[in-house]
Specification:
Structural class: alpha/beta
Number of strands: 12
CATH topology of the largest domain: Nucleotidyltransferase, domain 5
Number of domains: 2
Shape: globular
Helix content: 25-40%
Bound molecules: adenosine-5'-diphosphate, zinc ion
Strand order of the largest sheet: 3-2-1-4-7
CATH class of the largest domain: Alpha Beta
Strand content: 15-25%
Largest sheet: 5 strands, mixed
Length: 294
């Protein structure tokens, strides 16, 4: 079965052709410009190749409710040219094949659940910590949507009293994305995270904020596995700090096998950076089999 996959990001689009086993035969990366410029290039890539379905993991917020008149739209994105753009409708018109559609982070958690370390798990969270922060949630075989889709990067965080940085989010003074995204690190410390590896205070504060958010997710969703990705998590020392901080914040209230083994509970992604695009292949497979929106 030949399937198409599109990881639609705010800065780049990754297009691939692969199969239902997550094998990728071919992929190309195209910069994200306006829909006028970028969409014809994407459509040409997929039209020139034979495939039975397409899976799209998209930056958002997006409309995922199949009953809504604007199903398939990118909604309130800060990228003005893509606001209210119906990406699914355009591909459906041009390609005429079934299309699976979900958030970029839901695609990543699906990739890990279908082909990676999250295989066989009932509840898994994938959090990316990069330019923005977003969370995908896989639960009982499906991707969690609810009334919209999770926006786990914007959960509110208790700011440390000594942290005078005002935050990077336009909507909230003290959400996780505002306090802990890559750009927040850069503004607070005056340098990009990439060159701050030798400053323990940077990562100790960062781990505190991430651990607060994870503690909330753990108590609310009871995940069996938490996967952390994105550029900021290239700072490997964060894993150790977060794994120590989360049990402190939980205060011993819950005891599980998973929490006793933090090294295998809070982990990096397992698919060499391909979890998103592989998840899009699985979205395509599911769309082809009529499981739209799962
Ligand atoms: P995006 O979120 O734009 O898709 P990334 O996940 O690579 O891309 O995130 C980019 C952000 O991560 C930038 O703010 C960058 O400074 C930060 N970042 C990238 N690599 C590192 C690193 N090794 N250490 C700390 N921060 C990093
Ligand atoms: Zn926010």
């Amino acid at each position: 079965m030949r399937l198409g996959a599109l990881e639609a990001g705010g800065t780049k689009m990754v297009c691939a052709i692969g199969n239902e086993s997550g094998e990728i035969f071919e992929n190309v990366t195209i910069p994200t410009e306006t829909p006028d410029v970028t969409m014809p290039e994407l459509i040409r890539f997929f039209q020139e190749r034979k495939m039975e379905g397409l899976g799209i993991g998209c930056f958002g917020p997006i409309q995922l409710d199949p009953e809504a008149s604007d199903y398939g739209c990118i909604t309130s994105t800060p990228k003005a040219a893509w606001r209210n753009y119906n990406i699914v409708k355009e591909f459906a018109k041009a390609l005429g094949c079934p299309i699976g559609f979900d958030t970029d982070v839901n695609a990543s958690v699906l990739g890990e659940a279908a082909f990676g370390q999250a295989k066989g798990k009932r509840c898994v969270i994938y959090l990316t910590i990069g330019t923005g922060i977003g969370g995908g949630i896989y639960i009982e075989g499906k991707l969690l949507h609810g009334m919209l889709h999770p926006e786990a990067g914007h959960v509110l965080i208790q700011r440390r009293e000594t942290d005078l940085y005002e935050g990077k989010c336009l909507y909230h003074k003290n959400c996780l994305e505002g306090l802990a995204s890559g750009p927040a690190i850069q503004e607070r410390w005056g340098q990009k995270g990439e060159v701050l590896a030798h400053r323990p205070e940077v990562w100790e504060l960062e781990a505190d904020y991430i651990a607060q958010a994870l503690t909330g997710y753990i108590l609310t969703l009871s995940p069996e596995l938490i996967i952390l990705g994105g550029g900021v998590m290239c700072q490997e020392q964060l894993f150790g700090l977060i794994r120590r901080k989360v049990p402190e914040l939980l205060g011993g209230y819950i005891q599980t096998r998973e929490l006793e083994n933090m090294e295998t509970y809070i982990v990096p992604a397992s698919l060499h950076g391909d979890q998103g695009i592989m998840g899009c292949l699985e979205l395509a497979r599911r769309a082809l089999h009529g499981k739209v929106g799962t």
